């Protein structure tokens, strides 16, 4: 697939829209890989498994995403749900990584 794509306001047909969506999805996956890399680092750095889950930090991350979404005119309630799931997935990944590193 072609790695070039048009930005949303430059698209004139659905083929261009779909190329842009697919390219953006690939970029999101690269960002998720980096984000989960930070979870690997956290698992390596934290000496106590019991501090992996941090509800205050989770609330802060979700609130930040919700606020950013609202500022950008995105559906903030749905973004909050997505981020809640992302953080939960990240916590589970970090716990698995913590266990893996110490087994």
Overall description:
The protein is mostly helical and 103 residues long. The chain has a single domain, classed as Up-down Bundle (Chorismate Mutase Domain, subunit A), CATH 1.20.59.10. Helices cover 73% and strands 0% of the residues. The protein has helices spanning 14-45, 55-71, 76-101. α1 packs across α3 (76-101) and α2 (55-71) packs antiparallel against α3. It is elongated and about 55 Å long.
Annotate the secondary structure layout.
Layout: H1 14-45, H2 55-71, H3 76-101
The gist of it:
Helices cover 73% and strands 0% of the residues. With 103 residues, it is mostly helical.
Helical content class:
over 70%
The CATH superfamily is known as Chorismate mutase
Approximately what portion of the residues adopt beta-strand conformation? under 5%
User: How widely separated are the two ends?
Assistant: 41 Å
Which stretches are low in confidence, meaning pLDDT under 50 for 5 or more residues running? none
- The SS-based structural class is mainly alpha
**Count of discrete domains:** 1
Which features does this protein show?
mainly alpha; 103 residues; 3 helices; Chorismate Mutase Domain, subunit A; 73% helix
